[in-house]
Amino acid sequence: MRVDWTKAQIIEYAKKHLPWIAQKTNMNWNGIVPDIKIMTNKELAKEAQGEGCFMAFCPQEQSLWMQLDEVNSLNWFKSAIIHELVHYLQYQNGKGAKPRDGLIALMQNEEEAYNTQACFLWEKMGIDPSEHNLSEKGIKIGILLSTMGATGMMKENA
Ligand SMILES: [Zn+2]
């Protein structure tokens, strides 16, 4: 499905939920919302170097990249924004892993992001996170990240 959110709506959504994320993860938020880049499916796949990737956090740019054309569901889309914002805070708080830090460091970042996403689905939306196989996705993403090149992107698959 296509999500008809504007960039302003996404920024508003991020601003609304960052305090909750910071509290859940015990991290600090400096009040700044990351830059949001909306692109096409193809552009994102090329930029994030991952086919089927629909959202990504770019630590170098401190920006959240996303496409709105092919999204599983609105709930999943919203929870994925939460996931990416966890990565944003990880880098802000000096615990964001770089590829050279290795798989364990990357997986620790993913674990926290997926746990917070699962918590969000359950607490805020009343959705059982096991419906989305979050832990399985975490492992897949971790393997993907370990094999990626120099971009250091945190990529998510729907
Ligand atoms: Zn992630």
Textual characterization of the structure:
With 158 residues, this protein is α+β, with helices and mostly antiparallel strands. It has one domain. 52% of the residues lie in helices and 11% in strands. The chain is built from five helices and four strands; from the N terminus they run H-E-H-E-E-H-H-H-E. The chain has helices at residues 7-25, 41-47, 74-92, 103-125, 134-147; strands spanning 35-38, 53-58, 63-66, 154-157. A four-stranded mixed sheet has the order 1-3-2-4. A hairpin with a 4-residue loop joins strand 2 (53-58) and strand 3. Helix 4 packs antiparallel against helix 5 (134-147). The radius of gyration is 14 Å and the shape is globular. It starts with 6 loop residues before the first helix and ends with a strand. Mean pLDDT is 83; it is low at 145-152. Residues 83, 87, 110, 113, 141, 154, 156 line the site of zinc ion.
